[in-house]
Description:
The complex is a heterodimer.
Chain A (H helix, E strand, L loop, with lengths): L15 H18 L10 H14 L21 H15 L1 H16 L4 H12 L4 E4 L2 E7 L2 E2 L2 E5 L2 E8 L10 E6 L5 E6 L3 E3 L16 E8 L3 E2 L3 H32 L3 E2 L2 E2 L4 H29 L4 H30 L1 H4 L5 H14 L2 H13 L5
Parallel strand pairs in A: 1-6
Antiparallel strand pairs in A: 2-3, 4-5, 5-9, 6-7, 7-10, 8-9, 11-12
Helix pairs in contact in A: 1-2, 1-3, 3-4, 3-6, 4-6, 6-7, 6-8, 6-10, 7-8, 8-10, 8-11
Chain B lengths: L11 H18 L16 H11 L22 H15 L1 H18 L3 E2 L1 H12 L6 E4 L12 H4 L7 E5 L2 E9 L10 E7 L10 E7 L5 E3 L15 E10 L9 H38 L1 E2 L2 E2 L4 H29 L1 H4 L5 H29 L10 H13 L3 H13 L6
Parallel strand pairs in B: 2-5
Antiparallel strand pairs in B: 3-4, 4-8, 5-6, 7-8, 9-10
Amino acid sequence: MMMKLEFENISELRSDVAEMLAKSIHEWAEKEVIPYRAQIDDEVEIADRALKKLFLDIGMQKLVVPEAKGGAGISFEDLPQVLLRSFEEIGKADAGIGFVLSALISASISSMGTEVFDYLSDKLSAGLCKIAIFPPQFGKSDFKGFELAKAVAVGDKIKLKGFGRPLNSGYDADIFAVFCNYSGISVAFVDAENVERSEQIKSTGLVASKNCDVRINAEIEKTRILTGDAWKKLYTYLNLCLSALCVGSAYDSCRILRDWAEKRTIRGKPLGDNTVDAAVIANVIREALEAKAVAQMLTKIMLEDRDDEEVYAFSVVAALKCSDSAFNSADRAMELMASQGYAREGLLEKQWRDAKSIRTLLNPSHLLLELSANYFGSKLW
Amino acid sequence: MEFARIREFESPLERYMAEIIRDWGEKYVIPHRRNFDEDWKEHRTIEPALEKLMVDYGIQTAVWPEEFGGWGLGSSDYFGSICARVMEEIGRYDTGIAVSVGVTLWPIFVIAVKPHINYDLCAEFAPLFMRKKLTMAANAMTEPQGGSDIENLDELKGKTIRTTAKLDGDEWVINGHKLWPTNSGGVADLFGVVCTTNPGVPDEKNFAYIYVPADLPGVKQGEPYRKAGMAADKNSDIWFENVRVPKRYRAWGEGLDAKYFRIIISTGCLGSAGMALGAMENIYEILFEKCSELRYRGRPLKENTAVAAVLADIAAEIEICRSAVYTYARMLDRPDYYGDRFSAEMIARGRALKLKVCDACCRVAERAMDLLGHYGIDRNYDVEKHWRDVKIIQLWMGGRQLCQMDVARYFYDCKQL
């Protein structure tokens, strides 16, 4: 008997809210994404329309916005499992849309309990909104080897200057969450009017995330800045969202491979009955299951009373592992599917490009050094 | 910096060709390369680059014997080395163009490479390639039902081929459906078509390699497919419906077609490895520049030990791969020392080379992208284009699995794979 590909999350991570939302996202994917997926790269309006429906009609943009402001008001206690299920479903449909949403959700969660959250809640309630994360850039060595935007206090205001490439959505974001050097490492929230943008860059994948280089030259209220460990919280939630997104992507690669392999004969036998091919199929599935296990573990750890630093460090591991797995699943599935895998109409190659994009954007070489610093106290920067 | 090149292996012609290809690449490819992806269907910028190389520089005439106006590469003692060098140098600029060029020469190898030169067929088809007009060829091999089964000659002996060739008087009548040949989609003027004269029977005598001009009645080509990369390589369906060609268009005849067809496997592996090597070298050049420019921890990226370690791994892969490619090329140069180019031994060595070099190339491209962070996925940095392109090289010609089986069969004397 053939096993089903879906593998439910462990019982303690299941919740009615998470399942209800996942069902809505699944329906959204079936209606708004799957029928058009082969055209998404060429017809930008498809991703725009699907993103808008997900953000506004399903309400993912307002997931943490208080109910009084029209949001879902999901609490910290429910968030991790809701994010896990939601992003798994989004990852099966379009990783690019999920990537844009990951930035928005992690930036808004990192501000909860501060004045920035009030500002963001108003923005997120007012209509479609995208938040671009402007991370530390290649440059000098202000922040663990990277360069932070410059922040200088002038009276009640803070002057911000920076140049570089956001993680996502630089070309059409409404708000920029800018990593800057104010009172340590802080995250400043800047309206797009204060940002000069270059032409949109062409990227390998994640087409829903329209990016470009930006020049930030802004003066903001001090209430628009998050200090302390807020940046770690932002990255922790970003890593959870991306991990779950990658789980969904890996499962979709498995599904695409299975649907193709069922009809395929090689050397006179069904493809899966040839041991050399079965071994590859097994590795594709293994990658997806490993990603799922790690993403669930991160979710569970985030629900426990743990040290923030520890959770942050584990989230880095999870994001690295899950993005590796999503890429490896697609890459190895492509190995068997060959031309049917790298043909654009076959859908696998989109997962392949998107998964590689996420993995590259996570900057694995740097994150591994950071892990060494976290776990062994290496004095690296 | 130059990676290992054994000067004693290098022919004067090879060095000269490398120079002209670099000149061509800088003038006709680099200015347009970042727009090739958008040009996948029309080839408005790709075709002029191909035309320059094939017609003006004469590459389309290279393999044909000198008496028919060609360069006589098929009779050269540097046949393998020159093929490898041409693929390496073109691959440095664009592996899609490299395969398009390589596959034009490919079907000709069966009839124009020493010791199997079919002078009658050379006389028939060489003039097509001597015209001052872009002339391309294609190898119509893969079929819808079986993927790499067609190339898996040693095991299946042509059993799964469904494209049929029936003799009717002095003509072959060909019927069948092929998928994915490079230079299909309206590009090729001549096809080398893999057929069977007795469907379902595993016997190499039934394997027929027949030349079919693309403009004959009954040859129908579909629209090109869109792929992850390799925009310069057009692929489509081809249908042969009661296509009639003279009996003499069969390359050699019973048994010999299958025997000499195998040169397509050994040279295909060499060409694939050569162009993958060229792509790796270009990635190295890009990394050299960008890792000197981008700064991390107060110094150029390349001056950080963790980054330098990855850069070193990449350089080591290229250094070793180049040595391997030219070792195999030299072995193909000298069948008097190393055996026929179509022998099981040379095919196994070729499969091993393709397996190893293509894996290395994919790994190099992946790691280069990771090093460059968000510039790695930026199409203006070119690395990601190579990454999309070289994955396709790894997967064609039966992909990793068929390479593995051929290698295991030879090196471990497996009888039941």
